[in-house]
Design goal:
There is one protein chain. The protein is built from 17 helices and eleven strands. It is of the alpha/beta class and 327 residues long. The chain folds into two domains: 197 residues, D-Maltodextrin-Binding Protein, domain 2 (3-Layer(aba) Sandwich); 93 residues, 3-Layer(aba) Sandwich (D-Maltodextrin-Binding Protein, domain 2), CATH 3.40.190. The strands form two sheets. Strands 2-1-3-10-4-11 form a six-stranded mixed sheet, sandwiched between helices. The protein has a five-stranded mixed sheet with strand order 7-6-8-5-9, sandwiched between helices. β6, α7 and β7 form a beta-alpha-beta unit. The protein starts with a helix and ends with a helix.
Length: 327
């Protein structure tokens, strides 16, 4: 009887708790769908999801994986997701299509973690003329191969493009279906592990700042939901700090998310620079804006049929939320 009374009291207490303002508030937590791809630089988002940093900041975030940039862009444009993690060159491309998106947080910059892979027999970019090159159109791989070719006196017209997702490009190279692959980690390490006689021919480190990523949403969503945007930024920063303080546990979460062995993850992550809130604040004082213009200029030179204008960074970036959080 005593036990039944205790159970009854606990049940009543739980019911009361659910009916209190706290219970109601929990039920009304803003929901956000976040689109990502299996890229190491987006790792803190998986950490934030796993360790409860989104909830800590008062938002309920569902992380949704995509394979293609185009699909992710279509999802945010149609409001099927509210926020995406996307490359800076992707934002420039989408703004050239008059889709009104903005970046509000710098996530990462890639150096050795974006690369052109080739057989050992090919030692220079100049030797790519006439070769079949696998890369994803409109993605960071597109920007990287165009930049590499231009730097070496060639253009995309001098090679035979084979369009495919970055996740498939490396394996296509190993299988002999293409001569060259442009991809990023963890697919670089996975491809080199599975096939002998291949090497890294060119990386984004040849042009620091060329490959970078942002948290992106529609201008209307950002302006209508400033507190959600700030919560996203703070949850990201919580996750970055966790990764710094707990590199093994945080690294394991990221490695599992991108399906990479931990030893390969550690090597690959050396080629990625993650931006916390402090680094964002510093870079958004003008350095990143200049980099964005530089990327736009490279894109206009290499793909003028797609890029007709360089977006004004002052309107393409919603920097005020980072600035408000570091006051």
């Amino acid at each position: 009887m005593k036990q039944k009374c205790i159970v009854a009291l606990l049940s009543i207490g739980l019911l009361i708790g659910l009916l209190t303002p706290v219970g109601i508030a929990m039920a009304g937590v803003p929901k956000v769908k976040l689109g990502v791809q299996p890229w190491l630089g987006y790792g803190p988002f998986w950490i934030a999801e796993k360790k409860g940093f989104f909830e800590k900041r008062g938002i309920d975030v569902e992380v949704i994986n995509f394979t293609w940039d185009a699909d992710m862009g279509a999802a945010v444009a149609s409001e099927k997701v509210q926020v995406i993690a996307a490359a800076t060159n992707f934002l420039i491309t989408i703004l050239n299509q008059d889709i009104d998106l903005q970046g509000f947080l710098i996530l990462d910059a890639s150096y050795e973690a974006d690369a052109v892979l080739s057989p050992d027999a090919i030692r220079t970019v100049g030797e790519l003329k006439g070769k079949k090159v696998a890369y994803e159109a409109g993605a960071t791989s597109d920007l990287l191969i165009n930049y590499a070719l231009k730097k070496n006196g060639l253009s995309i017209k001098d090679v035979k493009p084979v369009q495919m997702a970055a996740s498939d490009a490396g394996l296509a190279l190993i299988a002999g279906r293409v001569d060259v692959a442009v991809t990023y980690e963890p697919y670089i390490s996975a491809a080199l592990r599975q096939g002998k006689g291949f090497h890294v021919l060119f990386t984004a480190a040849e042009r620091p700042g060329l490959i970078s990523d942002l948290a992106v949403a529609s201008r209307k969503y950002i302006e209508d939901n400033p507190e959600i945007i700030k919560s996203m930024i703070l949850a990201w920063d919580d996750a970055v700090q966790f990764l710094k303080q707990n590199p093994e546990e945080g690294g394991k979460i990221i490695a599992d998310a991108v399906h990479s062995p931990m030893d390969e993850y550690k090597i690959a992550m050396e080629g990625v620079r993650i931006f916390d809130l402090k680094k964002n604040s510093s870079a958004m004082k003008g350095e990143f804006q200049k980099t964005m213009v530089d990327i736009g200029q490279i894109m206009m030179e290499t793909t003028p049929e797609n890029i007709k204008k360089i977006p004004d960074p002052d309107t393409a970036l919603a920097t005020k939320y980072v600035k408000e959080l570091v006051r």
